[in-house]
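User: Predict NAD(P)-binding domain-containing protein's structure from this.
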Amino acid sequence: MAPASFYHASSTVCVMDASGHLGSTLVNRLLQRGYTVHAVVQNHGEVKKLSGLPGENKKLKVFDADPFDYQSIIDALRGCSGLFYTFEPPEDHPIYDEFMAEIEVRAAHNVLEACAQTESIDKVVFTSSANAVLWRDDRQTILEDFDEKHWTDISLCRKFKLWHALSKTLAEKAAWALAMDRDINMVSVNAGLVMGPELSLKNPYLKGAAEMYEDGVFVAVDLDFLVDAHIFIYEDISAYGRYLCFNHVINHPEDALKLASVLFPSPALHAQSFEQDMRIIQQKISNKKLNKLMIEFRGEV
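Assistant:
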């Protein structure tokens, strides 16, 4: 059941890219809520991830589209009122390096331009990252908590080779610039480290994790919470701007050990480094803006 503030011209939405775990979970949840879903995957080999979803014969349509192929995006968006966009690295360039920012910016530009040319689209939910918020030289001295008003310093990312933060920041900035220029109703979800089944030490979000921990800005989000946030932000017409999205703050040795148990096969090997330091790091990041929306949504699902 959608909230009272929900209104869109149709119940058809597009999820791009539906080949990742966030995208496929979004497709599943949207179908459960009665939406017709255009699920965009980058290649037909990813369609198997969407098998067995509820209502797939009637309300699920799978599109094989490339974020760098403008026409294929237009075809997938046709007839949709909304787009949930999350970037999945292409198969020929899966690693976040100094060149990924250009790739991700180009993809975001193509997708937002396609939305501008699709008359039925009335809202875009753009998945970004908390990494596009918290990397700044003044992080340790800033008096207020980090929130959606803050932006990552691009020069700092280049200096310390924080390629994931650089890519997410530049891509989100490019998306916002085009959304404002083309009068697109866009909202961004700046997610913390996603605590899902695909989490591993290779996750590019983890670059600089020790510094985030020490500064009280290391945040994570459960996959289900992240999916709920996307849907409610889409359904609530009052949602606007950026939303930091997390439901865990890793600021205590026990939190770090719990994460280590997921990332490392033998977490006991890493416990010693925390045993002598039982500090609780002061939290320096806030998601109050999102929480105000989520209270209402959690009462309805």
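The first strand starts at residue 12 and ends at 16.
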